Amino acid sequence: MAFKDKMIRFMYGRYGIDQLYYAMLILYVILIIMNIFINSLILGILVWVIFALMVFRSFSRNIYKRRKENDAFLKLWNPVKGWWNLNVRKLKDIKTKRYRKCPNCKAVLRLPKKKGKNIVTCPCCKKDFTVTVRF
């Protein structure tokens, strides 16, 4: 029996890897790099705690509880990720587009860059509103 088959059989019924695991892995790597320069005992202990938690979560058989933990993390992470992605898109489109919120439904609209006052119809709520683009 190959190692891959043995590993698949061992992991059967265990939780495995999810988005929280990847976030903890990134935090783990960042803290290790920081600890190389700072060389703090507290930071070193924190690195080991995060590593132990990662291993515990991935080998856990309590799938329901691990899924709830991941859902709670995603509830916090998704708004941050959405805000970050929107701002990155705004920077990429800064020469040709402008982003404005609809005052009625709060949807973010991507509008062409036309200087002056423009009347815009929201595609979500079908309401008209005025947008001023200065530069």
In short:
It is built from four helices and four strands, in the order H-H-H-H-E-E-E-E.
Characterise this structure:
- This protein has about 140 residues and is α+β, with helices and mostly antiparallel strands.
- It is elongated.
- The protein is about 60% helix and about 15% strand.
- The strands form 2 sheets. It has a two-stranded antiparallel sheet.
Q: How would you describe this structure in keywords?
A:
58% helix, alpha+beta, 135 residues, two-stranded antiparallel sheet
- Biggest beta sheet summary: 2 strands, antiparallel
Strand order of the largest sheet: 1-2
Structural class: alpha+beta
CA distance, first residue to last residue: 67 Å
Which helices and strands, and how do they pair?
Blueprint: H1 3-11, H2 19-38, H3 41-59, H4 63-92, E1 97-101, E2 108-112, E3 116-121, E4 128-133
Antiparallel strand pairs: 1-2, 3-4
